[in-house]
Design goal:
By secondary structure, the chain is mainly β. Helix content is about 0%, strand content about 25%. The protein has a three-stranded antiparallel β-sheet with strand order 1-2-3, with no helix packed on it. It has a three-stranded antiparallel β-sheet with strand order 7-4-11, with no helix packed on it. A hairpin with an 8-residue loop joins β8 and β9. The protein is elongated.
């Protein structure tokens, strides 16, 4: 290639122009060619969205009520959380395993849920 630019995400030098985008084949990152050369763009202005969202993209917060959208089997138990179960007063936690909602469900007790299986009520 004639340019000496690098991917801003993985710093790979194997990038190419695809229409109006720079593309990195190693990590799959794409960015606009109109934003300047990749060497001059800064990724520090990009702030990751760390808010927890439900299955439909709605932002969740502590104290919300949610509805389960998929039947969930509970490990180590024969119980299941059925579709349509309404869970009140959720608490958002930093679950390293993807379980980012702590709550209590009637008949089951305290449980952690993944936000991808609930919708905001």
């Amino acid at each position: 290639m004639a340019n000496d630019t690098h991917c801003p995400k993985c710093n790979s030098e194997n990038i190419y122009v695809d229409g109006n985008l720079w593309t990195c084949p190693e990590c799959g990152h794409e960015w606009s060619i109109f934003a300047g050369s990749p060497a001059t763009t800064t990724t520090s202005s990009e702030v990751p969205d760390t808010r927890i969202r439900d299955a439909h993209g709605n932002v969740l917060s502590d104290g919300d009520s949610v509805t389960v959208i998929k039947e969930l089997k509970i490990k180590g138990s024969s119980s299941v959380v059925k579709v349509g179960t309404k869970v009140k007063n959720i608490r958002l936690v930093d679950g390293g395993d993807g379980h980012d909602i702590a709550c209590k469900i009637d008949g089951i007790g305290a449980i952690n849920l993944k936000s991808e299986f609930v919708k905001k009520a």
